Amino acid sequence: MNRPARRDGTPDRTRNDKPKQGSKPPQKQAGRQGAVPRLSNAKPARSQHATPASDPATPGEQIRLQKVLAQAGVASRRVAEEMIADGRVEVDGEIVTEQGRRVDPNTAVVRVDGVRVMVNENLVHLALNKPRGWQSTMSDDMGRPCVGDIVAERVAAGQRLFHVGRLDADTEGLLLVTNDGDLAHRLMHPSYEVPKTYLAWVQGEVPRSLGNKLRSGVELEDGPVKADRFSVLEASEGRSMVRVVLHEGRKHIVRRLLAEVGHPVERLVRTHVGAVTLGDQRPGSLRVLGRDEVTALYKAVGL
Question: What pairing do the DSSP bridges indicate for beta strands 162-163 and 171-178?
């Protein structure tokens, strides 16, 4: 249909060219044929969805210490003032007793009775149950399902998240996700000896005496490894279920350790990282760590 012309002879495009209100743009064609559906078995937990922090402090803003403690849920302001007066509160390594002290909750390290209090509302600490077959990466060039798919909603909301360490694709279970680089670095470093617990289903009936050998140390191609703890939970019909606790994080360390002693792994699940446990969290879901869990992680690595 011909458009009416303006006086200068050019077509009038000011009317009827805009899409109707409420109309949707054409949908792009789905990804390449045969691609693995994303989040096919990962129903997000309710706690996955990002929620804005309640009245977060502006970076650099100084807030009265008793208010910071109250906002962190330690105690009411009046009780917090009593704690300060009694010398129970420490800020950046210094005991504070004056009531007028102001701190920046985004940077200050606050402890009560020697236990760190999480006062920075911008810090995120999550537990993820990584399903078997998923990659421990934030994105995957080959289109395979990965950790980044599960936290994509939070990343889109502006949270800069990364996973603490890795689990190989065939290993399931607990993977921590955070935006605290110092905590992540220390949790991954073997010198802090944060234990990780695994359940492994292995070939062969494992004798209970194997624990002594694993605790004494087994030589691998990249050096010796020792299990902190080891126990046989079941052993029958040529198959066993064992629990292994160690603080090392070398690649495929549990699989290589058990294969070296003659019991190749058929299935592997990480159930604990320090004081954080997987529990009955379903595969592909996230949950926000509780205050006690976060405090225990910081304490374990000396932060």
Answer: antiparallel
Q: Which residues are CB-neighbours of 126 under 8 A, at least 6 positions away? A: 151, 161, 176, 177, 178, 286, 287, 288, 289
Strand bridging mode 239-246 / 196-203: antiparallel
Return the pLDDT at 63: 85
Q: What is the CA radius of gyration of the chain?
A: 26
Report the SS3 class of residue 40. coil
- Centroid of chain to Cα 26: 36
Q: Give the integer Cα–Cα distance in Å for 163 and 38.
A: 19
Task: Label residue 167 exposed, middle or buried (CB < 10 Å: 0-12, 13-18, 19+).
Answer: buried
The confidence score (pLDDT) of residue 93 equals 87
Secondary structure of residue 161 in the 3-state scheme: coil
> Please, what is the end-to-end C-alpha distance for the chain in angstroms?
71
pTM of the model: 0.71
The residues assigned a catalytic role are 168
The Cα–Cα gap between 214 and 206 comes to 12
Q: Are 264 and 253 in contact (CB under 8 A)?
A: no
Tell me, what's the pLDDT at 173? 95
For residue 190 the two structure tokens come to 């073997």
Ranges under pLDDT 70 in the chain: 1-60
Distance between CA atoms of residues 193 and 237, nearest Å: 35
Give backbone dihedrals phi and psi of 226, rounded to 5 degrees, phi first: -125, 140
CA distance 95 to 90: 4
Give the pLDDT confidence score for residue 201 in this predicted structure: 96
